[in-house]
Design brief:
Blueprint lengths: L4 H4 L33 H19 L8 E3 L5 E3 L4 E3 L2 H8 L2 H17 L27 E8 L6 E8 L10 E6 L13 E7 L6 E6 L11 E5 L4 E7 L3 H5 L12
Antiparallel strand pairs: 1-2, 2-3, 4-5, 5-10, 6-7, 7-8, 9-10
InterPro entries: Matrin/U1-C_Znf_C2H2, Matrin/U1-like-C_Znf_C2H2, SF3A2, SF3A2_dom, Znf_C2H2_type
Pfam families: SF3A2, zf-met
Subcellular location: Nucleus
């Protein structure tokens, strides 16, 4: 039986060529140079950046003279200006070149310039707005006399204080301050029905007088203080408002009391 070539290969299975799957080329990727090992990873880039900033900071910063550099008890490094913690000196140096540290430095410099710091050392503390507390030896309380007063026209009751300051420091004028019951720390618990009148003058101790918690009349001629430098006497007069004035004080549309 004669067979043609077509009949000879008709019953055979077709031959499928084997194609090998391509392997990703990590060396010759886009953006890398031949033999360079590929594009650097994110962590490698950060490490290189920190090392570059560290070298830059070492040229400008001496850690021994840096007032904000501090090494704590666990071996970490702290920035006292920004309140940050760093594991090594390189991390701290990189932090000093960052935006946060530079911004805080600028803010501190502006604040010190406003307060007058960092200028000529001949400036006195008073000129910089700083009040220096003086340690003065107290010599006791002054003698005093209290007189009850009454205005015959307005029927207001008041008190007249007379204090003796024979050993007062030259140039010092006694000062007066009113204090509520919740500010003082002598009477505990505080009683809201009372208030306190304080008088201070160096080198005497501060005197405190316990008064009724009534509203004071601070109009002209009602409340005044006067220091007699010749006799070293300090006078204080206070007048309390009447019950009617306290009751209707601040009521809208009510005419003020005639003086």
């Amino acid at each position: 039986m004669n067979l043609t070539i077509t009949d000879k290969y008709r019953n055979q299975k077709p031959i499928i060529p084997f194609i090998r799957a391509p392997i990703m080329d990590y060396q010759n990727r886009a953006g890398s140079k031949f033999g360079g090992g590929g594009v650097a990873s994110y962590s490698a880039t950060n490490a290189d950046r920190r090392e570059r900033l560290r070298k830059l900071a070492l040229e400008n910063i001496d850690l021994d003279k840096d007032p904000y550099f501090f090494k704590n008890h666990v071996g970490s490094f702290e920035c006292r200006l920004c309140l940050t913690v760093h594991q090594n000196d390189g991390s701290y140096l990189a932090h000093t070149q960052g935006r946060k540290h530079q911004t805080n430095l600028a803010r501190r410099a502006a604040r010190e310039q406003k307060e007058g710091k960092g200028q000529d050392g001949s400036l006195l503390p008073a000129s910089m707005g700083v009040q220096v507390k003086r340690n003065t030896v107290k010599i006791g309380r002054p003698g005093y006399k209290i007189t009850k007063t009454r205005d015959p026209f307005t029927r207001q009751h008041g008190l007249l204080f007379q204090l003796q300051y024979q050993e007062i420091t030259p140039g010092v004028v006694p000062r007066v301050r009113f204090m509520s019951a919740f500010e003082q720390k002598v009477d505990n618990p505080p009683d809201k029905n009372f208030q306190y009148l304080l008088v201070a003058a160096e080198p005497y101790q501060t005197c405190g007088f316990k008064l009724q918690a009534r509203e004071l009349d601070r109009s002209e001629g009602k409340f005044w203080t006067w220091f007699d430098e010749d006799n070293k006497e300090f006078w204080i007069q206070i007048m309390f408002k009447t019950e009617r004035e306290e009751r209707y004080s601040g009521v809208p549309g009510l005419a003020p009391t005639r003086r």
